[in-house]
Amino acid sequence: MNSTRRIEKAVGGELPDCVPVAPYMGNFGARLAGVPIDRYCTSGRLMAQAQYRAWELCGQDVLVAQSDNYYIAEGFGLKVEHHPDGTPTPRGALVREPRHIASLQVPDPRRDGRMPVYLEAVERLCGMVRGEAIVRAPGTGPLSLAGHLMGTQNFLTRLGLLDIEPDADAENALVELLGLTTQALILFARACLESGARIVQAGDSLASSDMISPEMYRKWAFPFERRFFQAINDHCRERRAFSLLHICGDNSRILQDMAATGAMIVEIDSKVSLGLAKREIGARACIMGNLDPTTVLLQGSAASVQQAALQAIRDAGENGGFILGSGCEVPPDTPLENIKATVRAARQARYPFGDPFGEPPVSPPGI
Prior knowledge:
This protein is α/β, with parallel strands linked by helices. It has helices spanning about 5-10, 25-35, 35-40, 45-60, 70-75, 115-130, 140-150, 150-165, 170-195, 215-240, 255-260, 275-280, 295-300, 300-315, 335-350; strands at about 60-65, 80-85, 85-90, 135, 200-205, 240-245, 265, 285-290, 320-325. The protein has one domain (about 5-350): TIM Barrel. The chain contains 15 helices and nine strands. Helix 9 (about 170-195) packs parallel to helix 10.
């Protein structure tokens, strides 16, 4: 069974030959291929070449065209600063006052910002893997993108103040902003699907329970995430593709809400118990996660990584509906052997699970 079929079965609620594995290896791929990150995040060709090289060495089931968070925001007009071998950072906010929001226009993903870089990378990767593995596109979530445009602290302060001092005009302006960011994400995700991506996402880190309360999540993030998935899921089904929601942090109190957005895959951060996620989400979505990117993947040994991976599989892999992954992005300096250990653990975990796990299938080259 190839990687594509393995992911299809996992998301579809069937049992693949072994547990699929998909660590989120964006800038790790650049470092592994020896490409400076500032060049990697501005060149679709280099991004595709780096991720393909990472796949050759690691043999994971999903490749991801990913580097930073500002490619859609740049399409709106946000200015960023580039750094040697680093990801871009914003040069301040694009809109500071709610009254400025009316001047924004939803960007064209094939023309504006650095969205065309990612679309090129997706298209090139799809041509390189030839259906043997899944290509995952990036996608900044509605709340996070609104924070990029207004400035994160300013945006969150305004949301908080509205709970204390209601202001209909200010609230309507922020709702308008979130509508614009949601539409921008929908258009970008559709363009990614047209370029061949089989997984499109809302990565909404600002919606984290480490940043806002569950009540604020349900008021300000959930309705727009749900709008995104309602709009994109039909396009996914037409192309046999899948939608994914990722929110960083300890989101134990909103797991059921995350599933209720309509995401086909819910990617779980390392701060959340996978066992709890399995119980809360059940069969409503495929669960992906959640090895700690720092303490396990970056700082651990290959043996400890494999042990953590097998424990994650035991916690959430029974009866399928699970993809082993990292809780968030794999740090660029993570040892290659630790990623290979992650893949190796997944390949050894064959259904039905036993103790120890069944005989592994033939491992792909490189692991």
